[in-house]
Design a protein that fits this description.
- It is built from six helices and 35 strands.
- The chain is mainly beta.
- Strands 10, 11, 12, 14, 17, 18, 19, 21 and 24 form a nine-stranded mixed sheet that branches. Strands 13, 15, 16, 20, 22 and 23 form a six-stranded mixed sheet that branches. A six-stranded mixed sheet has the order 26-25-28-33-30-31, with no helix packed on it.
- The radius of gyration is 23 Å and the shape is globular.
- The structure holds copper (II) ion.
- Copper (II) ion binds at residues 516, 578, 580, 583, 588.
Length: 618
Amino acid sequence: MGLGGAAESLGAADLPRDGRGCSPAVTLNVKMGTFHKVMLGVVCAATGAGCARAQAAGGEACPRPATGSVIEEPEDLRSVGGVLRVDVAYRNELDVGGHMRYCYVFGDGSESPNLRVHPGDLLILELKNELTVAPGGMSIAMPMGGHGGAGEDPCSGGKMTAASTNLHLHGLNIPPICHEDDVLKTSIQPGDPPFEYKVRIPAGQPPGLYWYHPHMHGFTKVQVLGGASGALIIEGVERANKELSGMPERVLVIRDQDLLNPNAAPNPGAEAPPVVLDSDGDVMNTGTGTGKPAKDLSVNFVPVPYPNYEPATIKMKPRERQLWRVLNASAITYLNLQMLWNAVPQWMAVVGLDGVPLNYIGRGGGGVAWQTHVGIAPGGRAEFVFAAPAEGVATLETLSVDTGSGGENDPVRPLARIVVSGDAPEPRAKLASSPEALPRPALPWLGDVAPVRTRKLYFSEILQDPKDPNSPTTFFITVDGQPPKAFDPASNVPNIVARQGDVEDWIIENRSLELHAFHIHQLHFLLLERFGSAVNEPFLRDTINVPFWDGKTSRYPSVKLRMDFRDSNTVGLFPYHCHLLEHEDGGMMGLVRVEPQAGAPVENLPEKASGAVALKRK
Ligand SMILES: [Cu+2]
């Protein structure tokens, strides 16, 4: 079978331009074929371009490159003999503009490196919380003698403050237990000894781009917005798609950050719609695709700030094909990537989404979806092949995304110039040239398994003062029939109880006036329907947009997902939430508890977790 239906559902359909999820502003142009198309699809022009190397712009704890820099690749930390062991210091500092930076500095001195592991490998990560500054600029008092001075177990969930942190391995199908991928009770304080994460990468984890970031409820946005994120790569994407064999690869982590020039006027000649701030100080959607963005963006930490948007620089050899692995590590900003040459959108060959190759399940098709733009929600990933022009300069930009009348402003803006020259350096990493084919997935294709039940959940928001759009908002994700309730981090009570081995269908509705991105930990799901209409996606996701309601239509926008609780690693208590992190922090999170099958071990369940953890702790 082909991936035609799948391809048509990518990109534009993911990034609604109006309340019905359509994209009139962008023509979705999809073709299927081989990589040869990438070569044909690129035209070029001559220009001379060069760019200064990155320079550290102030700061010592979390150095960052200067605007306009050449984009450096993150360092690669690779497993050796099936083990990747790393030490990580988690630091922060106030920059000269008063913005809080957060960073992961690894033992080799690299910041936010790529962690590269294979299925079946062991990842051992020692995380030391070295935060010294609280939001607002106050120094964090270092407790005497360990955890908060009280000797609390970091697995106990006792203390969760702006100085606390933990780590989530986004997209991995690993157990939700402390020292692995628990984010509900794990809380590491400044002064604690290094905290060990010890994770066995599942043998069946699809190869692709995943990521790591903190997940401390109430403080996730500020930490991720400050730069706390990095790529985690499960090696072997070329084993799923042999056309990728031997191809150079490049990791691009796109982050958002507070505006560097918040008071700047738009560029002369640019349309200047009125600026309305929401209760978080973010610029609300102008509906014009222009104007002041809610946040600035950066590419591998090179900022591309409003209002001039001086792009970062990527150098490529003429006509070189590279696999670009793009992570949207933004806290709240949507991306809709497009490659332009001479104002003409170029083809991108999408081969993987959310860490899963498009042909991972082996149901035929080329495993390639040809796109002229690729939408990536906060938390999502897209992997695509791009071929450089024969000469000249192409531009990577993000198109505007209409997030709804209640959403933030994500205008069109450039991100990077792709400068072609014969002496451009090769990316550091290259995919294997003669890969062994991946084994077929052990479980039947999710689309062929009958669900045991269907549930409905919905996103909603309440303004504390309904007459004041700038008053604080409470965010909810509610199981239909239950009372809407903001997530309570003190609660262990699940909103949903499922059973391991089962497959369920979940309908996620959006009853609010802004876009939300549904994400669940520990598993991938299959998109079945959008607005009640079937879609054909023979691949999996872990993050999905749910289009905004226009406030008038009698039916709420929705998606229908097939949720996969078959793997024993999903047993336990874990969250689902909106991946716009200020929504998550504001309460848009719920809990599912997956019960073991009769007779199965129960070590992932919370009441057993402390015992399991005791065995693991050093
Ligand atoms: Cu949201």
